[in-house]
Amino acid sequence: MKKKVLIVISAIIFVISAIVIVMMAWPDKKEVMAYEEKEEPVEVIDKDKDDEGKDIVIDEIYYYTDNPSKLPIVQESKEINGENYIFNGDMDVEIVETYHGIYLEMEEDLLYDKTPSETYLYESRATGKEYELGLLSSVRLNETKVERGISESMYYKEELETPNVDETIESIYHNGLKDEDEAAILEVVGVIKTKEYTKDMTINAVFECDDPNNEEWFLGEGREPVLLEDDLHPVWAGYEEDILDILNLNKDIYSISGGEWDGDYYEEINSEGTKVLKRNAIYYCIADVADYEVIYESKTEDLGYTWKEIYGINGDVDPLDAKDYYYMKASVHYEPVPKESPVSMYRDNLDVEGVIKVANSVLNHPFVKTEDEDEYIRLGLNKEYNSYGVPFMDNLSDVDRVNSNSIIYGHNISKSNVDVFGELSLYTDENYRDAHKFIEVDTENGKSIFNVIACMIINIKDDEDVAYSEYNNLEDDLRRADFIKFLNDRNMYDEEIEDLNGARYISLVTCYENYNDRLIVVGRCA
Predict the structure, then answer these.
(1) From 153, 185, 275, 317, which residue has the greatest number of CB atoms within 10 Å?
(2) Does a structural domain hold residue 508?
């Protein structure tokens, strides 16, 4: 008997233990719901080591594109678990899902306190049919200046006529450029009648008689003689317009519908000292009234941002509007920020501006910047003769300046121990570019990653080609547009380069096959 009891107790304990284990393993309902409600995939960060044994983290990001070979814009640096990491140039991309429908990329300048719209109304080029596209993604690119419209309205109710309004008013708004509240003077731009209706009203009138014996009565200041009608009602029927004229009321607004006495007769002494007989009356009117909105506006310059937006719709649309587009995953590799900048290795030479590197290639070399650009053509870093020279930067260039093109020149030499610009010629093959997409530039200000977007050959005897050396400062919109056109007209790669305000460009220039030819590889850091 005792043995059976022990068996039963053991079974009960086992069941209870199993239930506890299952309950501990089962996720909390709130966690499940929180995950299911997420519209975007969760950012995943994994730790790993690269081929050289360095610690790296892999940041998975998701994005939409109509060109799966086009790389996404990534953060150059980020803080992870309290440590600073930088993009090391390695990125693996894969297609998660393919769609077919309408895909639209656009850029838009918005005020700092605005975000892109969740929908976009797209009109078919073929049929004129309208489609409502949903916002797939948006990225804030750079700071800019945007025109802010400031508007206020004032409202007037039950007005008999168009109201007299102030021509200007003062309004307080927050100026993002100054990061402070500021007063703006708004001017009236419109007076809008928002509603028309009728309203019952009463009008007070006073009848006056100078001589009760002749019973000649006067109404109002007009001193027009009128009849009293009778003891119950003042005169009005048939005399509506006359009474309105006497009382100086607009016949287009008022109409009299009745009247009655307001009290009995009474005596008063007028301004001339004469005793007069008076009696008050009330007239009932219907008046045409309206509500008005008065709009005041002004414009000023304020802080804004340029956004890149992607809108799309998947499904049955007109074939002329449809294309394939893709949901992508990029595994972006970050490495810890080095304790010491690569530039610090060359502190003995103050002309060293930075270090330029292309991963998985022999190009890993300092470059200089001097007032005399030709100084290092045949000098080494020790300033002694060296036929290989040192890559040098155009003295108008600045790698860290936005809206600029930094030009770096180097000899076409490639040896295992002399890694100048010889391997740049391999960029004429787009497959090589795809495997070496990133140019790393280290300066005292940190590391920048430039995505290779163009490769071209120019002739220095061609006036149009040689103008490339003048494309340094790209602040001016027209100048930047000319630069982008120059790249698109000569680019070996079959892709259109977009004009991105606020981007930085780098151009690596070296000799090519013919004496007057120059090979240029262009990278962009957005």
Answers:
(1) 317
(2) yes
> Among residues 315, 334, 353, which one ends one of the domains?
334
Q: Residue 291 in contact with residue 195, Cβ under 8 Å?
A: yes
Question: Which pLDDT band, with edges at 50, 70 and 90, does 21 fall under?
Answer: very low
- 361 CB-near residues (< 8 Å, 6+ apart): 419, 423, 436
| Token output for 278 | 């008076």
For residues 376 and 360, membership in a common domain is answered with yes
Cα within 13 Å of Cα(138), Cβ side: 19
Mention every residue, 6+ apart, whose C-beta is less than 8 A from residue 2.
Answer: none
CB 209 within 8 A of CB 302: no
CATH (domain of 403)? 2.40.260.10
pLDDT at 289: 93
Best CA proximity match to 242, nearest among 260, 231, 261, 227: 227
Q: Which of 4, 281, 69, 294 is nearest to 168 (CA)?
A: 294
Domain range for 322:
44-142+306-334
| β-strand partners of 283 | 203, 259
Residue 95 within a domain: yes
Res. 9: pLDDT tops 50: no
* Tokens, residue 469: 């050396």
Tens of pLDDT, residue by residue over 432-456, are 999 899 999 988 888 899 999 999 9
Distance between CA atoms of 219 and 217, rounded to whole angstroms?
7
How many angstroms separate the CA atoms of 387 and 384, rounded? 10
- Domain membership flag for residue 492: yes
Q: What is the average pLDDT value for the chain, to the nearest integer?
A: 82
Q: Pick from 20, 64, 13, 16: which is nearest to 329 by CA?
A: 64
**Across-strand partners of 61?**
330
CB 377, CB 388: distance < 8 Å = no
Q: DSSP H helical segments within 82-165, as ranges?
A: none
> Which helix (H) or strand (E) is 433 found in, with range?
helix 430-435
Same domain? 325 vs 449: no
CB half-sphere exposure, 34, CA atoms < 13 A:
6
Are residues 519 and 461 located together in one domain of the fold? yes
Q: Taking a C-beta distance cutoff of 8 angstroms, is the pair 311, 106 a contact? A: yes
The answer on 323 and 397 residing in a single domain is no
If asked whether residues 133 and 58 sit together in one domain, one would say: yes
Closest C-alpha among 23, 93, 88, 26 to residue 51: 88
d(CA 490, CA 472): 18
CB-count burial class (<10 Å; 0-12, 13-18, 19+) for 438: buried
Regarding whether 398 and 511 lie in a shared domain, the answer is yes
Q: In angstroms, how far apart are the furthest CA atoms of the chain?
A: 133
Same domain, 359 and 488: yes
Same domain, 394 and 313: no
Q: What is the full DSSP assignment across 110-134?
A: EETT----SEEEEE-TTT--EEEEE
Number of residues that this document lists for the chain: 526
> β-strand 217-219 against 224-226: which pairing, if any?
antiparallel
